[in-house]
Write a structure and sequence with these properties.
There is one protein chain. With 218 residues, the chain is mainly α. It has one domain: Mitochondrial carrier fold. It is 69% helix and 4% strand. Strands 1-2 form a two-stranded antiparallel sheet. The radius of gyration is 26 Å and the shape is extended. It starts with a helix and ends with a helix. About 14% of the residues have low confidence. Keywords: Membrane, Repeat, Transmembrane, Transport.
Length: 218
């Protein structure tokens, strides 16, 4: 009697679990849709599952970060370069000066906009699916934090960890930006010296120098 009832209950639980497994594939299965599909396959999957707007999901956080970052980066470079020249009149104006000014400017831009970069990174791992359910692109866990947007992410991080939470992990970014930013401006100014004087203000030479400088700095 008791053993039969327990056996029937166990078989019912097994059937329910099997049915749920068929309906809700695990996160690894979802990630497998993108793994190994290549660039074209990933574009196709995103378009089929989310439509054209899927290609721009999370772009708001990227724009909110890159606009002030780029503005501060180039403004700080020009200002630091001018301050160095005024403070050290005998310093040689050349690529070395650009290397120093560019490195300091890159660090200034990172420190000033890192909270936005942190928010962008956190939101990039989230995906809003139909049914108003938020899941992570990584392994979805019940305890995982889900954010509703940029402001919600900033408020949540500040409420949980204070100001230091908005700057957590900044050190590796600084380690990378100092040499990258300095070398980028160094190569940019160095290559401009090889451009004929009458073409130095043209857009195409500037774009070409900037592209190669960014590549070499990276």
């Amino acid at each position: 009697g008791a053993h039969r009832r327990w056996g029937r209950r166990w078989r019912r639980q097994v059937r329910r679990g099997a049915a749920r497994a068929r309906q809700d594939p695990p996160p690894e299965t979802r990630r497998a849709e993108f793994r190994g599909s290549g660039l074209v396959g990933s574009f196709r999957t995103i378009y089929q599952t989310e439509g054209p707007l899927g290609f721009y999901r999370g772009n708001g956080a990227s724009v909110a970060r890159i606009v002030p970052y780029a503005a501060l980066h180039y403004m700080a470079y020009e200002e630091y370069r001018r301050w160095i020249i005024l403070g050290f009149p005998n310093v040689e104006q050349g690529p070395v000066l650009d290397l120093v000014a560019g490195s300091i400017a890159g660090g200034t831009a990172v420190v000033s906009t890192y909270p936005l970069d942190l928010v962008r990174t956190k939101l990039a791992y989230q995906l809003q699916v139909k049914g108003a359910v938020n899941v992570s692109l990584r392994e979805s866990k019940p305890s995982e934090q889900v954010y509703k947007g940029i402001l919600d992410c900033v408020k949540t991080i500040y409420r949980q960890n204070g100001l230091k939470g908005l700057y957590r992990g900044m050190a590796p970014s600084l380690y990378g930006i100092f040499p990258y930013s300095g070398l980028k401006f160094y190569f940019y100014e160095k290559m401009k010296t090889h451009v004929p004087e009458e073409h130095r203000k043209d857009i195409i030479p500037k774009l070409a120098c900037g592209s190669v400088a960014g590549l070499l700095g990276q």
